[in-house]
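In response to the reviewer comment on reproducibility (Comment 2.3), we provide here a single inverse folding case reported in full, input and output, so that an independent group could reproduce the run without further information from us. The C-alpha cells appear first.
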C-alpha cells in the first residue's frame, strides 16, 4: 500500500494520493476580499491547477464538500459551479454553512478525485 503525499508540511499535504484516488486539501480563493462569484471562481481555478498537476481533471472528481460562510450565497455558488462542472460529470456533492478560518473567506471546497 503506497500513499503519496504531495507538498506536505507539518499540518497538511496539498494532495494525498492512494490507490487511484486523490484527496485535495481545502481550497479557498487567492483574493480573500472578493465577492462570492470571484471567490468561487478563484477557488475552482486552484482545484483545476491541483488536479492537472497530477494528471486528473474536473471530469474525474468523485466528490466535493463545499463550505459556505453564509447559505445566502448558495445560489451564487451554484451559478459558478454549474458552469464549471462538465455536463454529465457532476460529482457527489454536499454544501454546508460553516465558520471560516478567516472572516473574509466566503467559501472553501474539499475535493476527492480519481487519478486513473
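Designed residues, in position order:
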Amino acid at each position: 500500500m503506497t500513499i503519496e503525499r504531495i507538498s506536505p508540511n507539518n499540518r497538511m499535504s496539498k494532495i494525498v494520493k492512494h490507490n487511484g484516488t486523490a484527496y485535495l486539501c481545502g481550497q479557498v480563493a487567492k483574493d480573500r476580499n472578493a465577492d462570492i462569484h470571484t471567490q468561487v471562481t478563484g477557488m475552482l481555478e486552484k482545484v483545476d491547477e491541483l488536479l492537472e498537476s497530477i494528471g486528473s481533471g474536473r471530469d474525474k472528481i468523485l466528490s466535493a464538500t463545499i463550505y459556505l460562510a453564509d447559505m445566502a450565497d448558495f445560489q451564487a455558488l451554484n451559478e459558478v459551479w454549474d458552469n464549471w462542472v462538465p455536463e454529465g460529470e457532476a460529482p457527489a456533492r454536499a454544501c454546508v454553512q460553516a465558520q471560516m478560518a478567516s472572516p473574509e473567506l466566503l467559501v472553501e471546497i474539499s475535493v476527492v478525485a480519481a487519478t486513473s
